Amino acid sequence: MPVTKIKQNTKERSFSKEMADKKSRILDPETVSKQAQIIKDIRIINEKRFSEDGTRKKAFIETYGCQQNVSDSEILMGMLEEMGYQKAISKEDADVIIFNTCAVRENAELKVFGNLGALKHRKAKNPDLIIGVCGCMMQQKANADEIKKKYKHIDMVFGTHSLYYFPSLFKEVLDDKRVIDVKETEGAIAEGYPVKRSEPPLAWVSVMYGCNNFCSYCIVPYVRGRERSRTKEAVIKEVQTLAKEGYKEITLLGQNVNSYGKDLYDDYSFADLLTDVCKTEGIERVRFMTSHPKDISDKLIETMAREEKICKQLHLPVQSGNSRVLESMNRKYTKEEYLEKIQKVKKAMPNITLTTDIIVGFPGETKEEFEDTLDVLRKVRYDTIFSFIYSKRPGTPASLWDDVLTDEEKKECFNRLLEVQDEISLEKNKALLGKTFKVLTEGESKTDSSVLTGRTEGGKIVNFKGDSSLKGSFVNVKITDVRTWSLIGEIEK
Ligand code: SAH
Ligand code: SF4
Ligand code: F3S
């Protein structure tokens, strides 16, 4: 097992408008054009090879973690395609392999080290293979050092703050240098980089980066830096372009998306951005994630209820149902305050789909305190939950605190949590039997190509028979059967 001990500044860095100076947060045009020039230079080399022997090199990016990483991988793949690389269908098929990593829980990290180790022989047989590792895990110096010392077959390591310098780093690798680039301060935001997205109808748009919340268990603020919002003009322009390209549903992304704009504007909030995004002709559905309960304002709830295009779906991570645990997690709300917000949301949008994240076995959590989490589940009646057993993250305050529950007890609590939730999820889905929903068809089901898959406005997965030409269009589907995690239906003629 790799040792990933790191020493990090666990003190919250205070946030100031000066630090958020708009100009210093936009990557300077010279850097952007220098990177664009390197992309062109590499393209010339690749085109020359193609004209000589008709072959194209292929690149594959393996992405771990959240949508933020998926979004970063879309930019990396965009740059690689501009350089003349083709998208490979698998690692086995690729000449360039990049792992975009996640550090949020230990098991995600272990998987990456395992996968890197497995490539050692392949690299020995084929020294031309380029292997890179980037993302949140690499933003931690100890992990980058580990790769540098013990995984000599890896050609490049770069952290989250180096994304926009990828072309120059990659060029060094092509020039036979080994690159390790972990910048200590968060990167400025860059606009205008190429992006390789998945096909319409769904697109994800990052509206802000980083997190200022420092929940005591969480590594994200350390590896993603402080909150930096893109300008409203940049976001709206990107959404308009996506609409022209045929995208119909946009999900606005940020680790704490509803604090959008606080670093940039005095009188323009996330609710205003949502209102403006909804004005885009051609975009029919707007979603967003992730919201922090403390930042769900009345204005945001009113905007959600008012704007037809905003999907009536809210992912509102509660983490724990016990107020003492919540305080120790530094979540800045109590159980009662959370439930009050949920009440407001339900009052404004009675049929809203609600989902949440929960951590079981946080240091100090007792069995009695865990009962409060079950109580929240029963009171809120979420449609789905995403639950995790607490994982120690070196450098975070909670990593120094002791457990009350044993591993065995944590597992028992975890299983009870799933049991309680599965029953609620199934009951909620059963209530939809016989009803008809407008479903945006996403494509063929992964397991059966004669079945199409799509989502309701509430974000529920619906599987139904239909022709693959329906991909990207809305259909009315009547629900004929339900599962805990999905619905089954028939297209209404
Ligand atoms: N910004 C989002 C999501 C952050 S990471 C938010 O604030 O909700 C996604 C989820 O991973 C978190 O909501 C939390 O439930 C879980 N998580 C984060 N750190 C964890 C840790 N150390 N152990 C277990 N789960 C963790
Ligand atoms: Fe992590 Fe908390 Fe920030 Fe979410 S809000 S990314 S859980 S520190
Ligand atoms: Fe993981 Fe980084 Fe996202 S730590 S959850 S990939 S921001």
Strand neighbour order, sheet with most strands: 2-1-3-4-5-6
Return the average pLDDT rounded to an integer.
93
Based on secondary structure, the structural category is alpha/beta
Bin the strand percentage.
Answer: 15-25%
N-C termini distance: 57 Å
List of distinct ligands in this structure: S-adenosyl-L-homocysteine, iron/sulfur cluster, FE3-S4 cluster
**Largest sheet report:** 6 strands, parallel
Please mark out the parts with pLDDT under 50 across 5 or more consecutive residues, or reply none.
1-20
Rg, Å, rounded: 23 Å
The number of helical segments is 14
Query: Roughly how much helix do the residues carry, as a percent range?
Result: 25-40%
Number of strands: 19
- Which overall shape is indicated by the principal axes computed on the Cα atoms? globular
Offer a few descriptive terms:
493 residues, alpha/beta, five-stranded mixed barrel, 19 strands, disordered N terminus, binds S-adenosyl-L-homocysteine, binds iron/sulfur cluster, binds FE3-S4 cluster
Provide a concise account of the structure shown:
With 493 residues, the protein is of the alpha/beta class. 35% of the residues lie in helices and 19% in strands. The protein has a six-stranded parallel sheet, with helices on both faces. It has a five-stranded mixed β-barrel with strand order 15-16-17-19-18. A three-stranded parallel sheet has the order 7-10-11, with helices on both faces.
Please characterize this protein's 3D structure.
By secondary structure, the protein is α/β, with parallel strands linked by helices. The chain is 35% helix and 19% strand. The chain is built from 14 helices and 19 strands. The strands form five sheets. The protein has a six-stranded parallel β-sheet with strand order 2-1-3-4-5-6, sandwiched between helices. It has a five-stranded mixed β-barrel with strand order 15-16-17-19-18. Helix 5 links the parallel strand 4 (130-135) and strand 5 (156-158). It binds S-adenosyl-L-homocysteine, iron/sulfur cluster and FE3-S4 cluster (F3S).
